[in-house]
From TrEMBL:
SUPFAM superfamilies documented for this protein: Hemerythrin-like
Family to which the UniProt record says this protein belongs: Belongs to the hemerythrin family.
Protein's name according to its UniProt entry: Hemerythrin
One term of GO molecular function: metal ion binding
Species per Swiss-Prot/TrEMBL record: Sulfurimonas lithotrophica
Gene3D superfamilies the UniProt entry points to: Hemerythrin-like
Top-rank taxon: Bacteria
Keyword line: Iron, Metal-binding, Oxygen transport, Transport
Pfam families: Hemerythrin
InterPro entries: Haemerythrin_Fe_BS (IPR016131), Hemerythrin (IPR050669), Hemerythrin-like (IPR012312), Hemerythrin-like_sf (IPR035938), Hemerythrin_metal-bd (IPR012827)
CDD domains documented for this protein: Hemerythrin
Length: 130
């Protein structure tokens, strides 16, 4: 996965730095073993909690009108990540985790940045006069 400036850069530093870290952790996958997928997913889960907390604090601080919608989506994604990680104790569960990592997660990342995070960053830029 590549951090694509066209698609991923929102020009709001605080958010961009979490998104760059996400891509960096994503790319730290060591090999094709189930263990490696699980380890990298655990790191992504931990970083995503911080990433979402940061956005939610910004939303609260600046009274973002779509806070509920955006934080509900965050909750859903954290739940999904936990669900797939916890399910990785069977062969099928490990395959599901792998395909979530390879397809689901990058698709979600692109869509979320292009929709909800873009909307939030435009709002914040206006509020903070950047
Ligand atoms: Fe984000
Ligand atoms: Fe977000």
């Amino acid at each position: 996965m590549k951090f694509d400036k066209q698609k991923h850069l929102l020009n709001f530093e605080e958010m961009d730095s979490y998104h760059k870290d996400f891509v960096e952790i994503y790319n730290s996958l060591e090999n094709d073993s189930s263990e490696a997928y699980k380890n990298v997913m655990l790191k992504i889960l931990e970083q995503t909690r911080l990433h979402f907390c940061n956005e939610e604090e910004l939303m609260q601080k600046y009274n973002y009108p779509r806070l509920k919608e955006h934080s509900d989506e965050h909750k859903k994604v954290l739940y999904e990540m936990e669900y797939f990680i916890n399910g990785a104790n069977t062969k099928i569960g490990r395959n599901i985790l792998k395909s979530y990592f390879l397809e689901g997660l990058p698709n979600w990342f692109d869509t979320h940045l292009l929709s909800m995070d873009s909307d939030l960053s435009s709002f914040l830029k206006e509020k903070t006069n950047l």
